[in-house]
Design brief:
Strand order of the largest sheet: 1-2-3-4-5-6-7
Order of helices and strands: HEEEEHEHHEHHEEEEEHEEHHHHHHHHHH
Bound molecules: zinc ion
Number of strands: 13
Distance between the termini: 45 Å
Radius of gyration: 23 Å
Number of helices: 17
Strand content: 5-15%
Helix content: 40-55%
CATH superfamily of the largest domain: Metallo-beta-lactamase domain
Shape: globular
Structural class: alpha/beta
CATH class of the largest domain: Alpha Beta
């Protein structure tokens, strides 16, 4: 059995020492208070005994739903009355079908699902962009996106049987289930459909992904807009609740009024400072390139056990802030209507006197740790000669090295995926990466 999550979180926050990964996907249940439990998974399920059935916050993912439900059932046999979705990401809703199936098997009413009013539109978007979302998730977790292009057509991104909300609300919703009172609050942040909930009887907040024991997932390079200002506002609104128990959907629950307020205020201030610096630079006429290479988050902030850039990272958040207040154009006139990658690659190959010097220089830069320039050169080489095995061999080595130099899962995953795509070309698994993607996207 793992250490109790509250013991671990208290020690890590108070010492400032990152002892162990706080996102523990154990599917183990821990009781947090009388009638309140968490199953740590991807994502967590928080269960509260209302006296009239269980209320769950999130349902975990499709792959983890069964294990989570099994742990929950060793703790309580009460029917699940209500599931509150903190937001519509699949790792929070995909396991709902397990609870629906369980209810059907036992001839109990199907759990009622509550979500914010924008949540159904998210599910509709997932259905409309099913192939895209499967590709980007593969990439985020490092898979060979091209090799999987044909498979992903066969199964939907939104898992079959996922429960859609029965009840939606716009800004706030007060509910009473049995003896349990809940105040649901809509906020923007990681998504546009987030709910955080104040449970006054337990002095408790269920925060969803507004706090994840990682640098906020506010810059995700492949996904839709995130909202850093409103995100910080929601953390400040939670901070003044004087909660005694704070339960996020990833990472560890936190106990203690002052400790909770302190953590929320630090994360809020980090986002506010970053937004302030980017906007100030935009106002001064800076380009995106200037900003990305001049604005940063202090290293001691990123060393906090709940702000490590191991999932998302500040550089991606800066780009997201630019997109939110600016547009997609980065301010470089050559990139307003750029040539195709192939055209610029061919030109560079001609200037270099062939593909070989370009590959050689890219490998030299990679060995010297100049990964940013190295990757630019090898992408131009592969754009110029996409069928060259020599290019793909070098590209595989270059992205392998780059992955090792990164901290965030998102950067590591995308670079590992690029390596996997080139490996698939070298081994003949995919005849030619780019064409496969072009035909099916
Ligand atoms: Zn999540």
């Amino acid at each position: 059995m793992s250490e109790h999550p509250l013991t671990l979180s208290t020690r890590m926050i108070d010492s400032g020492v990152y002892e162990t990964a706080p996102n523990r996907i154990t599917n183990e249940l821990s009781e947090l208070a009388d009638g309140v439990a968490i199953v740590e998974s991807f994502s967590h399920v928080v269960a509260i005994d209302s006296g009239d059935g269980l209320v769950l916050f999130d349902a975990s993912s499709a792959p983890t739903g069964k294990a989570v439900a099994a742990s929950l059932r060793r703790w309580s046999d009460e029917p699940v009355d209500t599931i509150v979705y903190t937001h519509g990401h699949l790792d929070h809703v995909g396991g709902s079908r397990v609870f629906a199936a369980e209810a059907a098997e036992r001839s109990r009413p199907r759990p009622r699902v509550i979500g914010q009013a924008r949540l159904p539109a998210r599910f509709e978007r997932y259905q409309a962009t099913s192939g895209y979302n499967q590709t980007i998730n593969l990439r985020q977790f490092g898979g060979a996106a091209a090799a999987a292009a044909s498979e992903r057509q066969d199964r939907p991104f939104l898992p079959q049987g996922t429960l859609w909300p029965d009840v939606t609300y716009e800004d706030e919703l007060s509910e009473r289930i049995g003896e349990l009172r809940m105040e649901l609050h809509h906020c923007l942040g990681e998504t546009d459909d987030h709910t955080w909930t104040w449970l006054p009887d337990h002095g408790m907040i269920c925060a969803g992904d507004q706090f994840i024991w990682n640098f906020p997932n506010c810059g995700n390079p492949q996904k839709v807009q995130r909202y850093p200002v409103e995100w910080a506002e929601s953390l400040r609104a939670m901070a003044v609740c004087n909660a005694e128990l704070f339960v996020p959907a990833h990472g560890l629950p936190i106990t203690g009024r002052d400790r909770i307020r302190h953590c929320l205020e630090i994360v809020a201030a980090t986002l506010e400072t970053l937004v302030g610096q980017v906007i100030e630079a935009m106002n001064s006429g800076a380009s995106l390139d200037d900003i990305v290479h001049s604005v940063s988050v202090p290293a001691d902030t990123l060393a906090l056990p709940y702000l490590r850039p191991l999932y998302d990272e500040p550089e991606f958040v800066i780009r997201n802030i630019w997109r939110l207040y600016g547009g997609w154009w980065d301010g470089n006139p050559a990139r307003l209507k750029p040539p195709s990658d192939h055209a610029i690659g061919v030109e560079l190959v001609a200037l270099a006197g062939g593909i070989a010097p370009l590959i050689e220089r890219a490998l030299e830069l990679s060995a010297a740790g100049e990964h940013r320039v190295s990757c630019q050169l090898i992408e131009l080489a592969v754009a110029a000669e996409p069928e060259s095995l020599a290019v793909h061999e070098a590209r595989s080595a270059i992205y392998g090295a780059r992955r090792g130099a990164e901290t965030s899962l998102m950067a590591k995953g995308i670079f590992r995926s690029a390596k996997a795509d080139s490996d698939a070309v070298v081994t003949g698994e995919v005849p030619e990466t780019r064409m496969v993607l072009k035909l099916s996207d």
